[in-house]
Target: Aminotransferase
Amino acid sequence: MFSILKPLPTDPILGLMAAYRQDTNPNKIDLGVGVYKDELGNTPVLKAVKKAEAFRLENETSKSYIGLAGDLGFCSKIEQQLLGEHRALLANRVRTAQAPGGTGALRVAAEFIVRCNPNATVWVTTPTWANHISLFEAAGLTVKEYPYYDYENKGLLFDEMVETLKQVPKGDIVLLHACCHNPSGMDLNLEQWEIVADIAADVGFTPLVDIAYQGFGTGLDDDAAGLRLLADKVDELIICSSCSKNFGLYRERIGACSIISDTSAVADIANSVLLSVVRSIYSMPPAHGAAIVDTILGSNELTALWHEELAEMRDRINGLRSLIVDALNTETDQDFSFIKHQHGMFSFLGINKEQIERLQKEFGIYIVGSSRVNVAGISKANIDYFSKAVAEVLK
Ligand code: PMP
Model:
């Protein structure tokens, strides 16, 4: 049976990681992989996480199953982090299932959508995180794209986006990135969120908000402001969140799929379907990541420490954005100021394939083929080398 299989190409980012590891250039820089890095190029365990883990080691009393929805303390704290004091929460219209990472949450959402409407199309931004397309298609859903990033002017194609969204059939799903758009870093402002929310309410599509970088853009509440605005205007909403980046818990695989329904009674029904989806995929989620987040968010002291560490990561990223603009604008004759107006870890440099290849071969600077760079891979130690190398390939 297996002999009919054809080999598939490896994921380009994983291939890039392998090539980077083998490169012996002492000045090499990895700007490919989407993980936060500190000034030394490390992705350390947060202090708040270490403390929560120590507490858990002492206090965990059982390894028995935690139930289909996962850790209920985690679920309710995440709902609050996402929605604040939103009336959907106060009216008991929100249900959450803990999931294995943001990816697991998206796959649960995809299967949930299939149960609601197997003929639904999921509309995603052009471009989007590549795995969005694969995972919705893997669940049997059709994926279509709507205009989003303006490669020419390094901004948003907002008018084109609006025109397409107005044509989306009722019952379809529109995926929106809450903040720190991956791969472009280009986010909607609040006025634009409001317009999108009005269209969703008018047209009757269901928004699915992917929030994988809450706290990495401008702040925990600011980064969820668009999502909350959407929840003001539509009755039904799906939210897929991830604690990989903001808690630095990547390999613990912790995220959540939250469903907002019109009424509490519908929410109960939706929840029963959500849990049945979970049961048929992985039965129950892993406990550790959720316990860490629950412990941190359940303690004023650990929450304060985590807020500090999150702000440190965010400030470093935003500081690097300014540093990169200054360095590239000095070394090259192009204007890279757009990088300052974007958010999160990613931006497109806007250079071509040949220039990307030269950066890798001649300078050991690793960037994915779309020219998306992970801003956090830059440091004060390598910014000069990086900007001179970019200037060289742009000549
Ligand atoms: N959504 C987006 C937009 C992402 O960039 C990522 C991670 N790269 C995820 C979801 C999933 O994150 P994870 O599964 O690692 O929690």
In short: The chain has 14 helices and 13 strands. Residues 34, 101-103, 129, 177, 182, 210, 212, 242, 244, 250, 255 surround 4'-deoxy-4'-aminopyridoxal-5'-phosphate (CB under 6 Å). Residues 10-45+302-394 form a domain with the Aspartate Aminotransferase, domain 1 fold (CATH 3.90.1150.10).
